Q: What sequence folds into this?
């Protein structure tokens, strides 16, 4: 029997990008501030946070169990989020994605491609002392002032695990998905152009999976 229920689609780790028709989920400090009108107004005036967060963001810590029920979601999209979790926490995150997706539901993951960064180092495009900066593993940056150093643990999320194409494909398949590599905007998600940002696909691995 065909499923005529409305599409329910999650954009996990949405940042400031909140396309209509999606449940846009994040728990960053800026997303929380946007829920407080007075503090949000002061932030816009003083520009403590660079991202323009929407008050429509659904606040949830993606390191914890999802609030959606088993088999209730049609599509999960997540871009430049998985790499911010440790390997084990990332697998728990993917297990939650699998749990809430309906059978034949789709998941699409975009992450930085470790192979690209390593290739740049090997060919001399990245020097050894800049390699960790390219990996994005630190809270602090050399030019940070005192305030930014204090706020860094609350507004920045270093990379905790890196992926290349074989590893991401294998991980998704281990979690029970049929997974394939995709090009930017090549997708079985009907309006992929609404949620996918061109700049986030550059030098990235893109994999789409279907729940078996």
A:
């Amino acid at each position: 029997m065909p499923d005529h229920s409305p599409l329910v689609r999650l954009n996990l780790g949405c940042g400031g990008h909140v396309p209509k028709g999606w449940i846009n989920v994040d728990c960053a400090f800026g997303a929380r501030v946007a829920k407080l009108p007075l503090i949000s107004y002061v932030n816009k005036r003083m520009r403590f946070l660079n991202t323009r967060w929407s008050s429509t963001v659904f606040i949830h810590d993606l390191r914890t169990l999802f609030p959606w029920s088993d088999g209730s979601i049609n599509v999960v999209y997540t871009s430049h989020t998985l790499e911010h979790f440790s390997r084990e926490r990332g697998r728990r995150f993917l297990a939650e994605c699998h749990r809430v997706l309906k059978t034949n539901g789709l998941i699409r993951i975009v992450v930085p491609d470790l192979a690209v960064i390593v290739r740049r180092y090997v060919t001399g495009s990245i020097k050894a002392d800049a390699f960790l900066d390219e990996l994005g593993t630190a809270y602090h940056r050399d030019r940070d002032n005192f305030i930014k150093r204090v706020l860094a643990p609350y507004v920045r999320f270093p990379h905790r695990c890196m992926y290349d194409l074989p590893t991401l494909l294998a991980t998704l398949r281990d979690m029970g998905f049929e997974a394939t590599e995709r090009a930017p905007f090549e997708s079985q998600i009907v309006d992929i152009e609404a949620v996918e940002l061109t700049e986030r696909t550059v030098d990235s691995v893109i994999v789409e999976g279907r729940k078996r």
Notes: The mean pLDDT is 89. DSSP finds nine helices and seven strands in the chain.
